C-alpha cells in the first residue's frame, strides 16, 4: 500500500513538472484596454499593434466591441515568445495615437498586464450623429449583465432601490440586500467606486434614480488579482451604478419634504459632487414611515416590508473619496449618524410540541425604545503595478435605552398553568473598533501577501426587570422578583496571515498560514432589589442610594464571570487552474487544516473551567465559468464554551437555562450550484440548487413541567438537520419589439428539522422531527408600450406542507398567495399617476383568524414644474385600510403566530426640488 502511494505521488510530481516545462515553451499573453482619456470608458474597434523594443511589428488586433460589456476596449496578444521589452501602439479614427511599454519578465507569468492606453480626442472631430433606437433593457456578455436605466418606467421621485427592484432577475430584500439571478451582490459601487460601502442601504434610499444611466453586474477582480494579473481568489460579485454624463461631473442634489395624515412626515436631502479626481456625497433624512422609502407601487412590495411596530428615523451622513493615482488608488471617509424611536406592540400565541400533550403560551408585549448610532469608516487603498495595500479603520458607537412590559400566560390543553407580569428597563452602550491591513507585492510571476487585522468590541447593559409569577394549578407560592443586572462584555480579536503565490501560466499554487487570537471577558452580576431591607420591593428602575447595599443582595446562583481565550492556526494549500481543459472552466481548491485551542475560565458559585482542542479539515472546491458555478465545502466550529458549563440559571423563572458539558463539535456540509442560460429577446433562465447538512447541530431541548408550566432549556447535540433548495428564474421578452416581458421565479425548499423535547416524568427526551416543504412562485407580466405608459400583472405565493410522525401532531397544508396589478400613466399637463392594487390571502391554517384576505391599494399622483426641477407628489398608503401584519412560523419544536402593530394608512403631500450644476466647457 505504501509503495502504491509513493508511485502515485511520484506520478503527480512528474505530471506537474512536465506541465511547467511545456508551459515554458508556449507563447505568453499580453492584454490591456484602450480608454477614452476624458471619460475613462473603453474604446471599441481601436487598432492595436504589438512591436519589439526596436519597433518591429509582431502582431496586430482590434479592441473588443460594445457587446463585450465590462470588457469593452480590451485587447490581447498571444505572441510574446521571448523575455524582454515590447511596445504597444493604439490608434482610432478621431483620436491621437498613443504608445505604451510593457515587459515579459518570466515565462511563468500568466500574462503581461499592460497599463491602460488612453487616447486623446483629435482636434478635428466629426459632427455628432443622433441615432434613435428601441430601448433595450439589458445586454449580456460573458458574466457581465448591463441594464439600461432609461428602459424602465419609474414613478417620479423614485430612488435607486425602486430601479433595482425592477431589474429582470434582481431581488431587493427589506434589509437592503441585493440578489441577481440568485447570487448575492457583495458590493454596491457608484461609477466604479465604493460609495457608503459600510451601509449600501444609504445609497439605495438616497441616490435618485433619474441620475442613473446604466447598471452593470459582474465579477470584479480584487486588488490582488489586478496586481498579479490573474485571478487570486479575491473576486467579488458587484453592482456598479453608472451615472449619466451630466451627473458624473459637477454638482447635483435632491431635496424633498412632505406631511400627511395620522401625523406622518418625511424630509430628506441628498447632494453629490463628482469629478475624475474627487467625489463627495452628503445626505440627511427624517421620517416616521418605518424607514420604508420604496413607494410600494411596483408590485414587488409585500405587507411584511412595512416592518414591525412604528419607527421614526433621523439620519445624516457624508461620504468623501479622493483619487490618488488612476482609478484604483484612493483615500476615502464615510461617516453617518442615525437616531431611531421605536414603538412595538405584539400579541403572540405559541404551541410547543410535547409528549402526552402540547403546551400553549399567550403573550402580550409592548416596548418603547430609542437609539443613537455613530459610524465612521476611513480607507486608504493603493494599487500599483507591483504592489497593493488595503487599509481600513472603522469606528462605531451605539447608545440605546428602552422600556417594555409583557403579560404571559402558559397553559396545557385543558387549563391555565401560570401567569407572569413583567416590566423591563434597558440602557446599553456598544463600541466597535476595527483595523484592517492587507498587502501584496508582485515578484515577476509570483506574489507574496500578508494581512493584519484587529477588532475590539465593548458592550455594557444595565437592565432592570420586575417579574411577578403566579402558579394557577400547583401549590407553588407566588414568585416575585425585582432584579438589576450590570453587564459588561469585552471582545478582542487579532488575526494575521501570510501567503506566497506561485504562478505557472494558467495555474497558481499558494501555501498560506493564518493565525487568530481572540479574547472574551464578561461580567454579569445580578442583584435582587426586592430583598433590600427598608425599601419598597415594588420600586422599579431605581438603585438604592447606598450602592454598597447591592453586595448584600447579590444573587450568587445567577451571577457569573468568565474569560475565554482562543488560539487558531490555519494551514492551507490553494490551487487555481484558470483554464481547465478537462472541465472547460476555472477550478479553485482549498485544502486547509485548522487547529483550535480554547480555554474558558468560568465562575458561578465556584470555578467551572472548560478546555477544548480540535483539529478541523475544511476543504473547499469551486468550479466556475461564465454561465455556471458550483461550490462544495466542509466547515466546522466549536460549540459556545459557556454552554458547556454545568450550571443552572433561573433568573427568568419561566425559562430555566442549563448547560451541557457533552456538546460536540459542529460540522457543516454545503453544496451550491448555479447555471444561467441566455438567449434572444433578453431571455435568461437561471437554475440554482443547494444541499446543506449540519452534524452535531446545537438544539435547545425543552423539558416542560405540566404542573407549573415552567420550561427548562438545555442545549443538546443532534444529528439529522438538513436542507434542500432549488430555484428557477426565467425572464424574457414575448414580442418582437420587446415591449411585453415576463419574469417568473420559482422555488422549492425542504427542511428536515430535528429538535429535542420532553415532559417531566418521562424517562428520556423525544426527538422532535418535522419535515417542512415549501413551494413558492412569483410571476410578473409587464407591458411597456412607450415611456408614458406601463402596466403589470403580478402574482405569487408559497404553499407549505408540514408533516411529522410525532404523536398528536396535526399535519399542516397551508398557503399564502397574492395577485394584483399596477400601472403607471403619464397624463396631460405633466401629471403622472402610479398605482398598485394587490390581494394578499392566507388559506389552510387551523386558526380561523389566520385564513384572511387583505386588499392593499397604494397610489401616487405627481406633477412636475419648472422643466422638471420641482415635483409635487400626493401619495396614498393602504387606502382601503386592510393592512394586516400577522406572521406564522413553524419549526421542529412548535409553531408561533404573531401580530405586530404597524404603520397606519395615510395620505401624504410632498414637494421635491432637484438641481444639477455642470462645469462650463472651455
Describe the structure.
This protein is globular. Helices cover 5% and strands 61% of the residues. The chain has 5 helices and 52 strands. The protein has 922 residues and is mainly β. Among the domains are: 92 residues, Sandwich (Immunoglobulin-like); 147 residues, Ferric Hydroxamate Uptake Protein, Chain A, domain 1. It has a 26-stranded antiparallel beta barrel. A 6-stranded mixed β-sheet has the order 9-10-16-17-14-15. Strands 1, 4, 7 and 8 form a 4-stranded mixed β-sheet that branches. β44 and β45 form a beta hairpin. InterPro entries: OMP_b-brl_3. Pfam families: OMP_b-brl_3.
CATH first level of the domain at 138-284: Mainly Beta
Radius of gyration: 31 Å
Distance between the termini: 80 Å
Give me the number of helical elements: 5
Please tell me the CATH architecture of the domain at 138-284 by its name. Beta Complex
Helix content: under 10%
